[in-house]
Amino acid sequence: MTIEFKRNLAVLRDMVTVEEAEGLLEWLQKKPTAKVDLGACVHLHAANLQVLMAAKPVIQVWPADAALRLWLESALTI
Amino acid sequence: MNSLLEQFLSEARDVLQGIGDKLMQLENAPDDAGLMTELFRLVHTLKGNSGLFDFPEMTRVLHAGEDLMDAVRNGRVAYSRILADRLLEAMDFVGLLCEEIEAGQGETARHAAASVHLVKGLRELIASDEPAESSPPAAAASVAELAEDFPDLALDRLPEAARMDAYRRACAGASLHWLVYRPSEQCFYQGDDPFFQVRQTPDLLWGGIEARDPWPPLAELDAYCCLLDFCLLTAAPRAALEEQYRYVADQVTFTPVSRFALVLPQGDTNGGPVYDDFATDARNLLAAGDLAGLARNAGTMLELSSPDLWIASALRWLRLVLESEPDNRAVLGALVESLNSLTTPDWRAAGWVERGETHHADAAIAHSPSQVATASSKPAQPDQASAAADQPSADDGFRSALPILPSDAAAALTAIVATQREILALSDQPVWLSGRISAAAAALSGCLRAAGAADALPELDAAVARALAEERGDALLAWLDDWFPLDGLADAGLKANIPVQPAMPVTPTDTQPAPAPATQPEPDSELKFGRRAEDAIAGPKSLKVDQAKIDRLMNLIGEMVVAKNALPYLAGRAEAVFGVRELSRDIKGHYAVINRIAEEMQDAIMQVRMMPVSFVFQRFPRLVRDISRKLGKEVNLVLEGEDTEADKNIIEALADPLMHIVRNSLDHGIESPEVRRAAGKPATGTLTISAAQESDRVLIEIRDDGKGIDPGVIKRKAYAKGLIDETLLERISDQEAVNLVFAAGFSTAEQVSDLSGRGVGMDVVRNAVEKVNGTVSLTSECGRGTRLRLSLPLSMAVTNVMIVVSDGQRFGVPMDSVVETVRVRRAAIRTIKRSLTTVLRGRIVPLKSINDLLGLDAAPQVNGDDELAVLVVRLGDESVGLLVDDFRETQDIILKPMTGVLGGLSAYAGSALMGDGSVLMVLNVKEMLS
């Protein structure tokens, strides 16, 4: 699993695959105030990305990967 | 090429042929559901197979074809000629791809655009007939149109730094493309990761992701329905982009972007210093050509303006343009004017638009002035301007030294300064220390000049002088710390990096192709295999064998025949030399057995090489259909005797001549429907191609009921072209005249069309047929039609030759040209005009000595009865006698054509190995006598 769900925080790591999107969506549906930690994330599948874009959770940690961070910042902070 | 691919290609050819045939049949019976199902099955099979390989272009076209056939099969779309045309076109495309792949040009990506075009054509047919069901394909098809109608590229969304960077890249010669990628909603199920795909885009300058529609409530969101759109600005060449997006070519639109479309000043239009003077000065400076002065003024203005202001943005652009292309006065002028009016320059109105593609940019430009105009109505805020003016005096020395730096320049500067710092901090004391300090100083002063901070130069010079005097780098280091504080530097570096980052290709893509496409066929591959099992109706009973293997077998059998032929010699030697008569008899008996087996083997291998003429005939329905439609004629093609067989080489040699003949018949023979009706003939012409076997030859007849050939016209044409002289014009019979069409350079057509009439038709046909020992004859009845007969040998492998002896050497003469062998008394030979002739059965036969023809210095020998041996051979319609010394037996030989240097000797048709190991030269009688 590349997503670890803590009490109110989802920690995404490495390459987040398409299979994770369902779980991420369900979790975010249950926890509207959830936060997301992308610090160790290198890439996330577009399905996950659109879940994050739709759910607009608070991003606690932006990815360390600068390129990914740029992409995500522009997509998730609109 | 792996064996799976080989098999696919060979199957694909068959299936494509099948599809073509079925379409032809459907043309006559459009309502035949069975045919339609069969056709669907073929397209479906081919599509499924192509999915196993990495040919997205092929699969895409086939997929569209399959959808269309499915719609037709279910009665949703009616079969039409347009449909057949498009499908045939699509199949031709697939055939072309197959050929290229086979030729080793596995790179099919460059056909992506063609494939999208074909898919669009096919989808349109589905869409036009069933608007209700057309949503997914129509959406795909209309993306391209959408982009055309809506060229708003929204370039103003891009941060200025990214645009400036793109502008610089464009000035350096890169072509900019705006790429919109709208992945299909189902793309996640096909294993695509659009986000990964765009991150891999080469030379990405900027990218944005947005939702296609407003997001639904989270509870209703489907994570696996892709709702994302991606917009990218990239400096990669188009080919690279097509390669990157080849799997999703139908979901991507590229728009070339002019670099000027990026010149969009942005920001708050209020406040700042008074610009009027600047604009006037700038105009004057520009008119005077004082670009340096203009740059200085702009720099000063920039320092006075807050970086967030619109005016600052415009000034930055002005400086950038000055830097990158100072000669482009029109652009500079437009920018200066826009500074005066505080509106974005209208590049189109400026009239300098230099490239066709800028029309895309217009819209992007056209809609930003409105924002600007509304913003400019706000009251001015002078305090902001003073704040901006204060800024340089702040203790941030770094910033004061480098007023405004483009982001990537800032990054470069950071790197240079860091390196100089390292160099200066070195603690060793080499003899070249002063040189080192000077080098660092030169680098730093260069940096300052480039950054437009020339006023800092005196201080630098002073520091350098101190450092040189002390012979230590410390003074310069101190200056560096003063001007480029370490933390400020890191800060500036970071700041500079952020906007630049998208400019750097995130990861080089070409080295590692996106894994997403590679996994594409997986999800439904299982399904496909399941369906494939149903598709296979019956196991094939025939083997596909590479022709090279057959040829090898044939060569071996040829050698076997030669070895076998040595046995009678051996028997002769056993008897004559060793005097063992019984052994000789046994050898002869055994020879008979081996001979029979060898002949059967030869026969069997010939059978293997035999192919039905349908191999050539099968392409005619399509050819006739296409040509007759192009010419507006109605033609009914009748094929007879398609299962007649002949050697593969013969059949293949037949293909091109037949094509010529059929084209000629359609173009010149069969008349247009009106003319036919006027002549009392049925409006639809009939073209019959029939094949039949007659002893050891194949006869092919091409017959049309067109207007025939008018011998009068031919005669006049031939005379006009100088092919015949006046006496011949008078004497020539109609039949002979008609045969003049075979003369080289002859053309009957009044006009050269793209089908025929260039005068390379019929003589090419005759040459091609004669090359395989065939003959052509033509009969025509004016107004009733033309009949062409080709006569070809069944097989070329074994040649029957007559062996003759002359000057002690043996020569072979092919039996098909031999008419008779006679002995002529020397007294019966006369000399007419210095050439020898004799009279045989009331006809004059010219005689030639074979020794003369071959340059042998010997006279023909007579036998005991004072008779000469004459081999009468056929040469066209005439007979010629060859004077030889003696006749020998006839023999079947395997004729090997001459190769290498000997290949140029046209007097010989080839050579053959005899049973006793000697080599027999086979004469080419026709070449020798002509």
From TrEMBL, chain A:
Top-level taxon of the source organism: Bacteria
Protein name, as recorded: Uncharacterized protein
Organism of this sequence: Thiobaca trueperi
UniProtKB/TrEMBL annotation, chain B:
Limits of the HPt domain: 1-104
GO cellular component: cytoplasm
Ranges of compositional bias, category Low complexity: 375-394
Phosphohistidine: residues bearing it: H44
Claim: Transit peptide is one of the keywords in the record: no
Membrane-spanning residues: none
Domain CheW-like: 797-930
Disordered, as annotated region: 369-394, 504-526
Catalytic activity reported: ATP + protein L-histidine = ADP + protein N-phospho-L-histidine
Biological function: Involved in the transmission of sensory signals from the chemoreceptors to the flagellar motors. CheA is autophosphorylated; it can transfer its phosphate group to either CheB or CheY.
Protein name in UniProt: Chemotaxis protein CheA
Protein's organism: Thiobaca trueperi
